[in-house]
Design goal:
Blueprint (H helix, E strand, L loop, with lengths): L18 H29 L11 E4 L11 E4 L9 E7 L10 H12 L1 H4 L4 E6 L3 H11 L5 E4 L5 H4 L12 E8 L2 E9 L15 H6 L23
Parallel strand pairs: 3-4, 4-5
Antiparallel strand pairs: 1-2, 1-5, 3-6, 6-7
Amino acid sequence: MTKPGIDTMEPMWPQGSSADYVAARIELAEAERTLRDQIEAVAAARRKMPQGRLLPEYTFAEGPQDLGVAEPVRATRLRELFGAHDILVVYHLMFHPDDAAACSMCSMWVDGFHGVLHHLGRHAGFAAIAKAPLPKLRGWALRRGWDGMRILSSHDTTFNADMNAERADGDQRPMISVFTAEGNAVRHFYTLPANFWDDAQRGIDLLSPVWNVLDLLPTGRGEWYADNDYAGRERRI
C-alpha cells in the first residue's frame, strides 16, 4: 500500500522507464521527503534554542575592501560586522598562523558563501574570520577571489579559543557561527562545527552545494577533497 499522493505524484523519470526503476524511484522519493521533514524539524528546534551567552567586545584586524591594497588596516569590533542587520554569520576559516595556506576544504565552503553573498546580505551580516595574520589571510582571499567579503584576522585575540574554534594545541577548527545584536552587545546564538558530537565528519555539508550535487551522481562523492593545494598542518577537522 502506497502512501496518499504517491499514486498521483508527477513523474521523476523519463517516459518508457522500467517498472523496476519507477518502483525504486517512488520508494526513494518517500525517503527524500522524510529527510526533508527531518531537516525542517531540526531547523525548527534550532530556532527554539535558549539564549546564548553575551560575548566580550572582540576587535579584529581588517584591511580595505580592495584585497589588492594592503593599507590602511583598522581595528573592527565584532558588533560592527552586523552592518544594518541584527544577525551576523561568521565562518571560522581554518588557517593556522604558521600555515602557508588556509584549509582547502574551508576555502571551498567560503567560495560558495562568496557566490551567494548578495543574497545572504539581505538577511544578515557575513564575515570570514581566521587566526592567520592579516597579510597572509588577505593574500589567500585575493587568490581565491573573495572580493566584497568581510575578511578579518583574529590574530593576537582569544576569539578562536573562546569560541572553541581553536584547540588547546593551537589546531584550528572549521565551523560556522551565528550571533545576534542587542544594542551595542553581541550574543552567541549557534555554532555548527564540521564534526558531529561523536567526531563523525560532514557536520556542515548541507552548507555546500558541491557535496550535495556530488551526492546525486551515480559515483557519489567518493573521497573527493577540494583543491589538493593545502600546504599546511595535518588536516584534522
